[in-house]
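Please check the following.

. . .
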Amino acid sequence: MDRSKVTEKFADYDDRLLVNKILDAVEYCEKNFTYKATTFLDPRQQKLVEGLLQKEKSIKYYTESGVQDSERKLYIIYNEDYAAEDIEKQYSILEFTWYSKSVKKPSHRDFLGSIIGAGIKREMLGDIILEDDKAFVVCSEEVSEYILYNIERIGSLPVKVQIVEHADITEEKEKTINTTVASLRLDGIISAGFGISRTKAAELIKSGRVRINWEEKDVTSKVIKQSDVISIRGKGRIILEEIAGNTKKDKIRIVIKKFV
């Protein structure tokens, strides 16, 4: 394989870096008849990796994530002659609990900040799931014990951490929003999906808090397509589930799925 021809297709530096890591893993598995795991990848990165791995005939792969319907996943790449059942689990699930009922529940950002602040890279962490009085953090097996013995607080909140076999989580709730918009611009869809003004939506976009399909976007006029996922840091995510035609006044009927 001409590696340079593969990597030159990707303009983004981080994408090229990921491509090289995947090609290194493929080459390692081919030569050593073994397996190798990636770090945790977001859905956009997963799509890139899938495109690469599907072209490789001498290796196989599968994903691990620790929780159902996860966003972030590990890819396990292995030689076609290697027995997949012999591959060890590559992730751990950490359960965080806290005792004080008088403090504000820690946020996703609190968990990320505390764990990354302890020296763990984001790519070593999978999904973070918040429950009423506990949270679950999926992480790479190699950093699980470090987190277990070094994280005693999330923000200012004392926590207890233990490794568990399964994440005991409630099903994610969804809300369906049937509405109309003047256009499919990003600021208008955010306004309709999150129940905020277009001015506020534009502020969030320009501040760098908005992602479309897990890519940061800062253009308010970006046109959203059906099935696009829009996430706002600190507010959650929505999916433009359906574009259902126009009204008599030429507005666009849409269906938005909001995760609450």
